[in-house]
Amino acid sequence: MAELCLRRDPxxxxxxxxGVTPRGQVCSSTRLVEVLAAGVERKLDPLALVAYLTCAYVxxxxxxVRGVFSVEPGTEVTFEGTTPxxxxxxxxxxxxxxxxxxxxxxxxxxxxxxGAVARALPETPNVGASLSGGIDSSLVVALAxxxxxxSAYSLSFGKEHxxxxxxxxxxxxxxxxxxxxxxxxxxxxxxxxxxxxxxxxEPNGDPLTVxxxxxFERAREDGLSVVLNGEGGDPxxxxxxxxxxxxSELYGGTSGALARERAYLRAHQKLWDDLxxxxxxxxxxxxxxxxxxxxxxxxxxxxRWPSFLDRLMAINVAWKGAGHILPKVEHLAAxxxxxxxxxxxxxAVVELxxxxxxxxxxxxxxxxxxxxxxxxxxxxRAVIDRP
Amino acid sequence: xxxxxxxxxxxxxxxxxxxxxxxxxxxxxxxxxxxxLTDQAFLNALDRVSSHGTVKWAPQHLAYELWRxxxxxxxxxxxxxxxxxxALAVILALMIGFFPIAAWxxxxxxxxxxxxxxxxxxxxxxxxxxxxxxARWTARNGRPAGLIEPAAELPPxxxxxxxxxxxxxxxxxxxxxxRRETVDVLLxxxxxxxxxxxxxxxxxxxxxxxxxxxxxxxxxxxxxxxxLHDCTPAGCSIAWQLRNDPEWFASxxxxxxxxxxxxxxNAWRRFWLPAAYGGLLVHPSLSEPERRWLSKWQLELFALxxxxxxxxxxxxxxxxxxxxxxxxxxxxSGFIVSAExxxxxxxxxx
Lengths: 387, 350
Known about the structure:
The complex is a heterodimer of chains A (387) and B (350).
Chain A: E1 6-7, E2 17-21, E3 24-28, H1 32-37, H2 46-55, E4 68-70, E5 75-80, E6 83-88, H3 102-120, E7 126-130, H4 135-145, E8 149-156, H5 165-175, E9 178-183, H6 186-199, H7 209-221, E10 226-228, H8 233-237, H9 243-251, H10 259-266, H11 275-278, H12 281-284, H13 291-300, H14 308-335, E11 339-341, H15 347-353, H16 358-361, E12 362-363, E13 366-367, H17 369-374, H18 381-385
Parallel strand pairs in A: 7-8, 7-10, 8-9, 10-11
Antiparallel strand pairs in A: 1-5, 2-3, 2-4, 5-6, 12-13
Chain B: H1 39-49, H2 59-70, H3 75-96, H4 99-141, H5 160-167, E1 173-177, H6 180-188, H7 191-195, E2 197-201, H8 207-218, E3 224-228, H9 233-236, H10 238-244, E4 254-259, E5 273-274, H11 288-296, E6 297-298, H12 306-318, H13 339-342
């Protein structure tokens, strides 16, 4: 009899689900609904629902359907009968005993970034890229431009809302990428909401989901097959989204049992503080107090990384990367017939990110310090220096 | 008077012993016995000050909320009413004799006394009266949800290894307040957490984190500091101090005075309190008109409902011009937008 082995990529760029039906295990490497269609019992997992309302995605191996699981990145799942056996073939590396000198790390990082972008490029002469104007997407555009013609796409929500078009335009001009601005209005979100939801495998509470989908559609209309993005820079290199947790540590918001875990959940700024209002009491009582916090605890207790920032980085790569950003990008792009690539989530880049000491990721007020210095020759000084 | 527990409306003679005739729970306040409000009025004030239980608040916020609910017309509105009534009285007096003038005088005296009493009651509430009301309410109904109280003990500092790591970092923005209570309102409502900014008071609060946080902030040559303070001489000078004190941000970053300055005070006119400082005010941060105002009046930030304070601070921090002058002059960046309509209480975002 054939043996089923499910193997998911190290970071979670591609989804992989499995469930158990009366006839045996079923799996899908595209969307969760296909597992459901195979006959898995459809029952809501209350704890996964709490996780979704808290984070706007469901982290880890759980899904909103009880009995349907996501394969964890970097693992293989085989089965003894219906019992899953998980084997980890890739792990985020532990902090090294000694760190190389800064200039050595800078060169290594530069080579890793160039390699990651090169691996993501299509055979064709043209490639697309989403360009926000921040350092992450800007460096991806700059590196891609060294080898391909790049069509860069930026989102705008109208003059009355803050945007970074000044920066994205500067980067496009500097690198020689063509630059298209996709205007998104409320009526566009309303019009494309249903089709965007239908494209996703799991619910995703990211407010940029519909605009992202429109970006991929536009790239497809322009005849592109691959769109790069700058996702991964924040979790891997000490971006600004780490600041709330640092403030929590400073102000004592993490003293007390499960306080740090709760601060991390609150930092998602979704419904953590309003769960008692959001959930029906009958549903709320099905979730044990502290259960969701228990999903966070192992990450903050992981002895592989002595630095707090590196532990934050690890949970952010696993949760926000594999649970939120990458699945969203994967499914929205796939609906448009596009292959989406996130070079900053390339395993070689992620592995190197853990070999960089925390103080070279956040150096005083300077976020993503080493990342910026590794690519400062590629981009305008104003983009490197912008807060 | 309505019972807040069972909703039964009862007359005084039905409330024997101050107890609801239906559910037998004791009322906290009894207007016929001299209390200025009912239980329902107090509960309504709690609901408003907490924005329906979504925001944490200090006792001083409740004091202003109770004052707000008693205010009636503003003084300027009363002046219009008195003027119009006086004009009408003069016209009628020309036709029918002195009686209308006498009637106007009686009306003026009664209403002026009422306005004055309201203002005095309000100041009493603000100064000390609200604590007594809160104590009575808590004794009967438990501690109101969202009330900010001083912490029994300080949180522990970060472990040494973590502290060493944290000291290597910094932040882009900070809010510095003249009063510890304002810092507590912001911290309890997670303003620092949700806006990626440090929050400190000028005099070293919160004590357990102050030195470390200030040292971290001073590492950032582009730090943006927002001064948030009462409209008092001390409050109006903190931006200047932050800008010029080498222990703070002298030659570092930019300092913006968000609120409250005399030019921003008019929207809360009815909550002006007599100045506590009676002497000549001389400070490089104060203009001549400001000195004149501050020599007579003061205005507390607590006059704004906490939700409004947080929203307006957020708007002010995110609407500043990019080239930021770093001067101490007040930045009218939206802190008082719609203030006249809301008078500190609107639910709209600024």
